[in-house]
Every structure is written in structure tokens, then in C-alpha cells.
Amino acid sequence: MACSSSFLHLLAALLALASWQAIASVPSPLQDFCVADLNSPVRVNGFVCKDPTNVTADDFFKAAMLDKPRDTMANKVGSNVTLINVMEIPGLNTLGISIVRVDYAPLGLNPPHTHPRATEIFTVVEGTLYAGFVTSNPDNKLFSKMLNKGDVFVFPKGLIHFQFNLNPHKPAVAISSLSGQNPGIITIANAAFKSKPPISDDILANAFQVDKKIIDMLQA
Ligand code: GLV
Ligand code: MN
């Protein structure tokens, strides 16, 4: 009897642990680090660990990436996102964090997008930006702020957000941390109108309640 009750306790503890692991987005590290072996053929959720005896300081380092202004004229929205994730710094593997620099042209927009695997904490380092995020259905409430140099704003995980440089004369720059080694970016317009293969214009016309011609124009 005693034996079967301790077995049940053990089973309950294991189940609790397993369900906790299943809901946690980033498991707690089980060692000091697990530097990604980007060349391993083994597929796991994240990357397998490189042999720790071969790990060097360079696995946790990226040379002068974030101090340089980026070209904001290469696209029509006038912004440029430089993401440093686990592919750039293999030491980020399992640590649940990454960083991004965003450059905005005068009147540049970082268009509505979401990070499926991260919350974002955003700091303006140059200029003034209008930023916001929208809550999920049914409210779809917009939370927005004017942000000046040094201001910090949070975009909760999975919610659609954007930033717009309202200044027609000056560029702006922001640095963000994201709570994932590989946060992912889904740009709403691209997902809706530039999927491969395209979503049928019947479906999009119905979803957006507009004429199919407008959808064809947006897809083009
Ligand atoms: C800013 O929101 C970014 O993710 O680039
Ligand atoms: Mn973002």
C-alpha cells in the first residue's frame, strides 16, 4: 500500500512537471548555457547544444552591429529592422531573449506586425515615435502612446503592434528586447496579401468586405 501511494505521488509529480514544461514558453536552462550547434542535423525545439568544451566568448558576441544607421529607403514603408536572434548569437539558445534595432526614415513606419513567440520591450533612442498595439477579439482595443527619446513601451506577446515616425524631417531609432531567442515576425499585410500561394481573392474580399478588384490591387 505504502509502495503504491509513493508511486502515485511520484507519478503526480512527474505529470505536474510535464504539464508545466508543456505550457512554459521557454524551459528553464538546465545548465549554464546551451550554445546552439547550428550545423547539427538533429532537430529539436530550438537547437542542440554545442560541446561546451568548444564554446568560446565569441559564441555570446556580435561585433558592432547595432550602432550603425540602416538604410530606410530600401522599402516603401521607410523602416529597417535589424534582428539579432539565436542565428546571429548561438549563445542565446534556450535563454529566451533577443534584441532588435529599428531605423525609421522621416515619416517612416514599422508596419503592423506580431511576434508569435515573444513579448517586446521597446526603447526610443533617437527621435519621437507614435506606437501602439491592439488587443485580441472581441475588443480589439488600441493602446497607443507618443514616445520620446528614452521612453519605454511594451508590446505584449502575440499582439499586433506598430511604430510611426511622425517627424517629416528627422529619422528615429529604437532598440527592443524580445522575450524569445527566435521571436518571429508576422507582418500583417504580407501574411494577408503576399502568402505563397496567395489566399484566394474571394476569401480576402469576403474577409475585408471589399470588392475583389481592391484585393487584386493589394496582392499586386
Ligand atoms: C518592433 O516592433 C520590431 O519588432 O521591429
Ligand atoms: Mn515588434
TrEMBL record:
<keyword id="KW-0464">Manganese</keyword>
<dbReference type="InterPro" id="IPR001929">
    <property type="entry name" value="Germin"/>
</dbReference>
<keyword id="KW-0052">Apoplast</keyword>
<feature type="binding site">
    <location>
        <position position="115"/>
    </location>
    <ligand>
        <name>Mn(2+)</name>
    </ligand>
</feature>
<comment type="subunit">
    <text>Oligomer (believed to be a pentamer but probably hexamer).</text>
</comment>
<protein>
    <recommendedName>
        <fullName>Germin-like protein</fullName>
    </recommendedName>
</protein>
<feature type="binding site">
    <location>
        <position position="110"/>
    </location>
    <ligand>
        <name>oxalate</name>
    </ligand>
</feature>
<feature type="binding site">
    <location>
        <position position="120"/>
    </location>
    <ligand>
        <name>Mn(2+)</name>
    </ligand>
</feature>
<feature type="binding site">
    <location>
        <position position="161"/>
    </location>
    <ligand>
        <name>Mn(2+)</name>
    </ligand>
</feature>
<feature type="binding site">
    <location>
        <position position="115"/>
    </location>
    <ligand>
        <name>oxalate</name>
    </ligand>
</feature>
<comment type="similarity">
    <text>Belongs to the germin family.</text>
</comment>
<keyword id="KW-1015">Disulfide bond</keyword>
<keyword id="KW-0964">Secreted</keyword>
<dbReference type="InterPro" id="IPR019780">
    <property type="entry name" value="Germin_Mn-BS"/>
</dbReference>
<dbReference type="GO" id="GO:0048046">
    <property type="term" value="C:apoplast"/>
</dbReference>
<feature type="binding site">
    <location>
        <position position="113"/>
    </location>
    <ligand>
        <name>Mn(2+)</name>
    </ligand>
</feature>
<keyword id="KW-0479">Metal-binding</keyword>
<dbReference type="InterPro" id="IPR011051">
    <property type="entry name" value="RmlC_Cupin_sf"/>
</dbReference>
<feature type="disulfide bond">
    <location>
        <begin position="34"/>
        <end position="49"/>
    </location>
</feature>
<dbReference type="InterPro" id="IPR014710">
    <property type="entry name" value="RmlC-like_jellyroll"/>
</dbReference>
<feature type="domain" description="Cupin type-1">
    <location>
        <begin position="64"/>
        <end position="216"/>
    </location>
</feature>
<dbReference type="GO" id="GO:0030145">
    <property type="term" value="F:manganese ion binding"/>
</dbReference>
<feature type="binding site">
    <location>
        <position position="120"/>
    </location>
    <ligand>
        <name>oxalate</name>
    </ligand>
</feature>
<keyword id="KW-0732">Signal</keyword>
<dbReference type="InterPro" id="IPR006045">
    <property type="entry name" value="Cupin_1"/>
</dbReference>
<feature type="signal peptide">
    <location>
        <begin position="1"/>
        <end position="24"/>
    </location>
</feature>
<dbReference type="Pfam" id="PF00190">
    <property type="entry name" value="Cupin_1"/>
</dbReference>
